[in-house]
């Protein structure tokens, strides 16, 4: 079956502002498309995602519709800028809302996120991509996603410098190569998991 990907852009800038996070996340979707994976993107800050750790926090909460897109996709691309050396507050809210997946299981005791691949995208003007990706990897794995080899692509500008990723004249070769590897590995792993699901849970 055809594979699909959903990118959650966790920039702090609402549309239509330009976003370096959006640019690199789109490059990941474009690279995935070369492997037959169709993709879409949600800029989370444009939606009223309420704080909490439940599937639906009520009162106009936008998370349930975004979550439906996550569950319907084979690959989650979680993309965040770097602020104060950390992932964005929007990204943290996404992680907190994904915590509810721990109580959502299929008839064989598996989380609904089992069999889904997750990758990370990190941009920023200071170092911190390894720190942030480590947090994202552990958090996403905790709630059931599988991380492929080379599961992050990132760009960090020079310290104390004001250049953004979107301001570069071209994509650095190392970033482009890393993005291509991420896409190839994510598509490969998602295809394997789609054809051969994880075994039933012993707790099921």
TrEMBL record:
NADPH-dependent FMN reductase-like domain mapped to chain residues: 15-150
Taxonomic superkingdom: Bacteria
Gene3D superfamilies reported in the protein's UniProt record: 3.40.50.360
Protein name: NAD(P)H-dependent oxidoreductase
């Amino acid at each position: 079956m055809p594979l699909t990907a959903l990118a959650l852009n966790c920039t702090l800038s609402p549309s239509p502002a330009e976003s370096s996070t959006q640019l690199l996340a789109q490059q990941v979707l474009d690279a995935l498309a070369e492997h037959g994976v169709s993709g879409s993107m949600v800029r989370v800050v444009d939606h009223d995602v309420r704080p909490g750790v439940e599937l639906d926090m009520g009162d106009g909460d936008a998370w349930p519709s975004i979550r439906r897109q996550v569950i319907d996709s084979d690959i989650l691309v979680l993309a965040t800028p770097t602020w104060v050396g950390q992932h964005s507050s929007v990204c943290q809210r996404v992680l907190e809302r994904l915590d509810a997946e721990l109580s959502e299981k299929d008839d064989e005791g598996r989380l609904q996120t089992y069999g889904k691949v997750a990758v990370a995208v990190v941009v920023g003007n200071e170092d911190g991509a390894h720190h942030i990706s480590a947090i994202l990897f552990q958090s996403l794995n905790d709630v059931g996603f599988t991380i492929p080899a080379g599961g992050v692509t990132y760009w960090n500008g020079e310290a104390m410098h004001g250049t953004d990723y979107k301001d570069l004249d071209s994509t650095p070769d190392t970033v482009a190569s890393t993005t291509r590897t991420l896409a190839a590995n994510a598509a490969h792993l998602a295809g394997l998991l789609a054809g051969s699901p994880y075994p039933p849970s012993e707790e099921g």
